[in-house]
Amino acid sequence: MKKNTLFGIGLGIIAGLFDLIPMIIQDLSWNANLSAFSMWVVVGFLVSVTQIQIHEVLKAILIAFLVLLPNLFIIGAQDPVSLIPVAVMTLFLSSLLGFFYQKVADNTDSQSKNR
Fold it and tell me: By the 8 A CB rule, do 33 and 20 touch?
């Protein structure tokens, strides 16, 4: 695997851990916890391998909400009010994931051009 792909997965793991903190405090089910964590790992991977000609932060937000979309129907059917914090957390974490991924991707690209 490329360094960028591993870094994207690593960022996804970190985002997943941050997403788990409030979920564990709320004593949510392990199904919900594992679903949220795995979503972020997948988002990190997809951000690193997807070639869309938009800013990395916007790309990460788009990918995160597309991956989250099926779960939103399940969450909304059970508790529509909980969609607000889910959307806010997804927006926040995906923005950070895209920002940090871009910093490393730009650094990796500039190093490879200097060789």
Answer: yes
Residue with tokens 């871009």: 102
Count Cβ atoms within 10 A of the Cβ of residue 43 and give its class: 0-12 exposed, 13-18 middle, 19 or more buried: buried
**Collapsed DSSP state (helix, strand, coil) of residue 87:** helix
Which tokens belong to 63?
């990918």
Structural domain containing residue 28 = 3-107
Give start and end residues of each alpha helix (H) in 26-82.
30-49, 56-78
Number of domains in the chain: 1
pLDDT, tens digit, 9 for 90 and up, residues 47-62: 999 999 999 999 999 9
Gyration radius (Cα) of the chain, Å = 15
Whole-prediction pTM value?
Answer: 0.89
